[in-house]
């Protein structure tokens, strides 16, 4: 068969316009939905109904949108944690462990307790929990950072292993020391250690009743703004990007790579730790097993899909929050995973559009 | 059988090769006669490599015909080209360092199949060596070989594959003078035995020494097609290449050097393999003076540059205006006024995926007005970069262009501009003009001389003797990490430097 046209992939020689990555990412999500629809159709489902249900279950009303945002909140912070480390080409895949250590350290404020919970003002308790959470995560980031800086130990292996250490460290305390009547969880925290939720204001504003969105989402958004400023405006961000792009050039320019490596791992860990704090203080209100359904790992995907841009991390996190919520609502729940997988594939393949121009060319008539 | 002369080895006619937005070759003709050495000249980006890649089967021309030994061909892959006896010796060697010469030559061939009787093939390769005078031990591992020997392996590789048309892409760029002579002898002996060679070069005198005819490309168009080498002057060639008369020797002003800026005393250091690369080396550079460092590549030049700039640990002392900077972080050397034009522009001197702006502020991003206390004022940074772009004539669409999209010459100008704006007291320039075209070399050399007039002490490390003789006030010759002697550039003779480069110590001094 001879078509009169042919498709040509031309390597881009000029830089692509700034808006193009956003457009291709959006297109990939849409295409992913279409492909999932086709798969559904083949197995005998009704794609339009599922699609409609997906949107009503995640964005359809304030309460469900609030659920989506609650799921997005830890993803934003963990996604930022990964994005910062990845900018420097530090492959921190230990956000999961840093998340757990953040949860553990911030719980100490309540469980030890570190302050008198009867008399201390709420904002001090919360602030202390935030600081403790970030310290916990930062310690878990410091260990692989220090080992890499001093002994060139591969950070991927150490961060991966430390995930399990953190998990079992947590388990030891909740099984053995602080177990609530033999359950694998601590007793519920006093209300003073809970992050404020919109539903707390239900008395004043009827509309907020049952809305579980908590202050953690603000942490996430503020963190995104701060991380954006660090990466795009500060000396430090410039150093991070320079080391990430060419460590030899960075050393040649007189930068202290060792120091930066440790600091970036600690910042990354602190962000993931803050996510852990926000989750136990804003959602579960106790330290328990399985506080994370793998946020730390989803954060890696979020950071990549967002192309390491802090604001894009927020948007991608909301999408993934919606997928988590939808996964809970739609039967079989695997559908949501299917969609996640296809989105990931589509976004990765959409890079072709950034690297090549695709043109349809009319074949010249052979003489 | 008629006694007509053998057909031309290669005939490329009206070759057009187009890349997105670029016409790389525009109706270029090239005829390689049987048994000749045909030089292909041109500036960087003139389209030489593209044209040769078409001949080697890497690209397909949009239009035009290629005939090999009179027979029209159409290559779809390098394999097709090899089958027609075309072999390319690349500028960057494609060898496996941990394997022997023989293993590297056999790599990728169908024969031998599974078990390798190495001694048998070693002998085959020795026979091939005898035939062409390409000496290298077939049982040696690649990493043990000098650059010149590795190149011989590359040539043997193509010969073993039955090549009778050889394309040599800037083969002399990596060689010492003596090795260049040897290579030229080899090339002549190959043509005597019926091989035909296309020789790509930047260096005019080499072309006039070895080639029979030449073709010159400029911006994708042939400005000379197969003209005879006889009676051509260097000036004429340069004019064909760059399209305007090049002033050949940049002028160096007479000036008295000032105080000692850099004083290197008894420095020893190891290279990356843990082998001693600098051996109790001492030298000094004064204000407003260029000290040239001559030597065959790998005799301690890189290590010397690295110990001074703080990138490598050493024994001994390195005094910058009396202050010891040895064994400190690079930031200390930078703070004491050392600037550095590194040998590896893309690997060390720049960040490829960052913009021109970001590359120009690498050393002053903390200083006013670009740096505030915590942040960088990117408006100021861009203005700074724009200023440098204009002042140093850096060709790029704008200052947000990624460094990796710049040509070698323009990237070098970015690096030089950045290093000069730090107001250095000492500039360590390693191979600042390597791989650049005639126009860019000249502007880089002028910038170095301007720095000298400003009173900067310059340590110029180069493998181009002509460059050292033109620019330097004194020349130190390095051999196996030792200074063989320091000569006055004015009265230095190439022959003497050449001898010192091979390890002959200077008797008087």
Task: Give a description of the structure.
- The complex is a heterodimer of chains A (367) and B (509).
- Chain A is built from 14 helices and two strands, in the order E-H-H-H-H-H-H-H-H-H-H-H-H-H-H-E.
- The model of chain A has no long low-confidence stretch (mean pLDDT 89).
- Chain A folds into two domains: 1-45 and 333-367, no CATH class; 62-330, ABC transporter involved in vitamin B12 uptake, BtuC, CATH 1.10.3470.
- Chain A is mainly alpha-helical and 367 residues long.
- In chain A, strands 1-2 form a two-stranded antiparallel sheet.
- Helices cover 67% and strands 4% of the residues of chain A.
- Chain A has helices spanning 20-42, 47-59, 62-87, 95-111, 122-151, 155-177, 216-233, 235-245, 247-252, 257-284, 295-305, 310-329, 334-349, 351-355; strands spanning 5-11, 356-362.
- In chain A, helix 12 packs antiparallel against helix 13.
- Chain B has 509 residues and is of the alpha/beta class.
- Chain B folds into three domains: 10-242, P-loop containing nucleotide triphosphate hydrolases (Rossmann fold, 3-Layer(aba) Sandwich), CATH 3.40.50; 248-337 and 424-509, Rossmann fold (3-Layer(aba) Sandwich); 348-423, no CATH class.
- Chain B has 17 helices and 20 strands.
- Chain B has helices at residues 48-55, 78-83, 101-106, 118-132, 147-160, 177-192, 204-210, 234-242, 301-308, 330-335, 345-349, 356-360, 378-391, 408-420, 438-454, 465-471, 494-501; strands at residues 10-19, 22-32, 37-42, 63-68, 71-73, 86-89, 165-169, 196-201, 213-218, 221-228, 260-270, 276-286, 290-294, 315-320, 323-324, 338-341, 426-430, 457-461, 474-479, 482-488.
- In chain B, the strands form four sheets. In chain B, strands 6-7-8-3-9-10 form a six-stranded mixed β-sheet, with helices on both faces. Chain B has a six-stranded mixed β-sheet with strand order 16-17-18-13-19-20, with helices on both faces.
- In chain B, helix 14 (408-420) packs parallel to helix 15 (438-454).
- The longest helix of chain B is centred in the C-terminal third of the chain and has 17 residues, at 438-454.
- Chain B is globular, with a radius of gyration of 24 Å.
- The interface between A and B is medium-sized, with 26 and 40 residues.
């Amino acid at each position: 068969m001879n078509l009169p046209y042919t498709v040509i992939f031309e390597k881009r020689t000029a830089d692509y316009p700034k808006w193009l990555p956003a457009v291709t990412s959006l297109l990939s999500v849409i295409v992913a939905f279409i492909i999932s629809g086709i798969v559904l159709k083949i197995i005998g489902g009704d794609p339009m109904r599922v699609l409609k249900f997906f949107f009503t279950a995640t964005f359809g009303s304030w309460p469900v949108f609030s659920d989506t945002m609650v799921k997005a909140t830890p993803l934003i912070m963990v996604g930022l944690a990964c994005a910062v480390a990845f900018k420097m080409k530090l492959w921190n895949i230990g956000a999961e462990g840093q998340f757990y250590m953040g949860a553990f350290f911030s719980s100490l404020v309540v469980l030890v307790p570190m302050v008198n919970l009867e008399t201390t003002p709420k904002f001090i308790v919360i602030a202390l929990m935030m600081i403790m959470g970030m310290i916990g995560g930062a310690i878990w980031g410091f260990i692989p950072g220090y080992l890499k800086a001093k002994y060139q130990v591969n950070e991927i292996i150490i961060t991966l292993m430390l995930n399990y250490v953190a998990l079992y460290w947590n388990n030891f305390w909740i099984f053995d020391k602080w177990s609530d009547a033999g359950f694998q969880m601590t007793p519920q925290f006093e209300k003073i250690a809970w992050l404020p939720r919109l539903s707390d204001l239900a008395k004043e504003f009827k509309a907020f009743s049952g809305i579980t969105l908590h202050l953690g989402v603000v942490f996430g958004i503020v963190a995104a703004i701060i991380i954006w400023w660090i990466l795009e405006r500060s000396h430090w961000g410039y150093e991070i990007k320079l080391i990430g792009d060419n460590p030899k050039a960075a050393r040649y320019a007189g930068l202290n790579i060792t120091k930066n490596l440790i600091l970036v791992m600690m910042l990354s860990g602190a962000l993931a730790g803050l996510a852990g704090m926000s989750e136990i203080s804003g959602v579960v209100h106790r330290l328990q097993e399985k506080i994370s359904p793998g946020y730390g790992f989803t954060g890696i995907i979020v950071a990549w899909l967002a192309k390491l841009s802090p604001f894009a991390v927020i948007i991608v996190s909301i999408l993934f929050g919606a997928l988590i919520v939808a996964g809970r609502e739609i039967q079989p729940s695997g559908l949501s995973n299917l969609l996640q997988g296809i989105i990931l594939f589509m976004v990765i393949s959409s890079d072709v559009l950034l690297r090549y121009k695709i043109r349809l060319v009319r074949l010249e008539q052979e003489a | 059988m008629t006694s007509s002369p053998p057909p031309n080895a290669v005939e490329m006619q009206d070759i057009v090769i187009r890349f997105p937005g670029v016409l790389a070759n525009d109706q270029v003709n090239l005829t390689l006669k049987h048994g000749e050495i045909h030089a292909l000249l041109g500036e960087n980006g003139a389209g030489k490599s593209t044209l040769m890649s078409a001949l080697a089967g890497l690209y397909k021309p949009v239009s035009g015909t290629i005939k090999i030994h009179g027979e029209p061909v159409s290559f779809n892959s390098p394999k097709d080209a090899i089958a027609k006896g075309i072999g390319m010796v690349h500028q960057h060697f494609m060898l496996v360092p941990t394997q022997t010469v023989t293993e590297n030559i056999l790599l990728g061939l169908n024969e031998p199949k599974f078990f390798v009787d190495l001694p048998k093939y070693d002998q085959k390769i020795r026979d091939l060596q005898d035939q062409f005078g390409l000496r290298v031990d077939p049982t040696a591992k690649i990493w043990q070989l000098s650059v010149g020997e590795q190149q011989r392996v590359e040539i043997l590789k193509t010969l073993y594959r039955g090549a009778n048309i050889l394309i040599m892409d800037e083969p002399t760029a990596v060689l010492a003078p003596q090795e260049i002579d040897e290579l030229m002898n080899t090339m002549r002996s190959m043509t005597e035995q019926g091989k035909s060679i296309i020789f790509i070069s930047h260096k005019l005198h080499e072309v006039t020494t070895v080639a029979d005819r030449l073709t010159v490309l400029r911006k994708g168009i042939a400005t000379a097609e197969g003209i005879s080498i006889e009676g051509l002057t260097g000036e004429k060639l340069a004019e064909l290449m760059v399209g305007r008369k090049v002033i050949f020797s940049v002028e160096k002003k007479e000036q008295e050097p000032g105080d000692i800026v850099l004083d290197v005393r008894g420095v020893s250091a190891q290279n990356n393999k843990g082998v001693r690369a600098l051996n109790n080396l001492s030298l000094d550079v004064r204000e407003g003076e260029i000290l040239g460092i001559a030597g065959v590549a790998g005799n301690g030049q890189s290590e010397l540059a690295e110990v001074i700039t703080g990138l490598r640990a050493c024994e001994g002392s390195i005094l910058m205006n009396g202050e010891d900077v040895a064994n400190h972080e690079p930031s200390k050397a930078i703070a004491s006024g050392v600037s550095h034009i590194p040998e590896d522009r893309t690997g060390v001197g720049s960040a490829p995926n960052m913009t021109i702006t970001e590359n120009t502020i690498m050393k002053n991003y903390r200083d006013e007005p670009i740096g505030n206390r915590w942040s960088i004022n990117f408006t100021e940074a861009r203005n700074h970069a724009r200023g440098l772009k204009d002042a140093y004539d850096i060709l790029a669409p704008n200052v947000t262009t990624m460094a990796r999209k710049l040509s070698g010459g323009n990237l070098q100008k970015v690096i030089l501009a950045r290093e000069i704006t730090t107001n250095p007291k000492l500039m360590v320039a390693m191979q600042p003009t390597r791989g650049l075209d005639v126009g860019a070399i000249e502007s880089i050399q002028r910038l170095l001389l301007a720095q000298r007039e400003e009173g900067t002490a310059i340590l110029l490390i180069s493998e181009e003797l002509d460059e050292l003789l033109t620019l330097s006030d004194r020349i130190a010759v390095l051999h196996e990490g030792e200074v063989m002697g320091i000569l006055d550039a004015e009265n230095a003779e190439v022959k003497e430097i050449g001898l010192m480069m091979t390890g002959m110590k200077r008797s008087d001094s």
